[in-house]
Amino acid sequence: MSDDPHKRWGCNECNWIGSVNTLLIAPNPFKLDETIMGCPNCKSIDSFWELCDEPGCNKAASSGWPSPQGYRRTCWQHSRH
Questions:
Q1: Closest among 19, 27, 21, 1 to 10, alpha carbons compared
Q2: What's the number of CA atoms in the CB half-sphere (13 Å) around residue 62?
């Protein structure tokens, strides 16, 4: 999961949308060398999708491509197809 504070994520369980720095983070009690992330709204664990980089678009990112501003992750509609 990207550490970019501007990158948006969505919860598969409750449709919450927010940035990575608002996710709940804790050690995995079953694998102590791993971290789990939870939804701040419904508390589900590791149930997120990456959202399109295009401002205002809440579709899932399904494509990636280099741009002059850096690597982009976008939905099909905003990809370079």
A1: 19
A2: 9
Q: Name residue, tokens 């992330």.
A: 37
The amino acid sitting at 78 is H
Tokens of 55: 């401002």
pTM of the complete model: 0.75
Strands 63-67 and 48-50 turn out to be unpaired
CA distance 61 to 50: 6
DSSP code of residue 10: E
pLDDT for 20-46, tens place per residue? 889 999 999 999 999 999 999 999 998
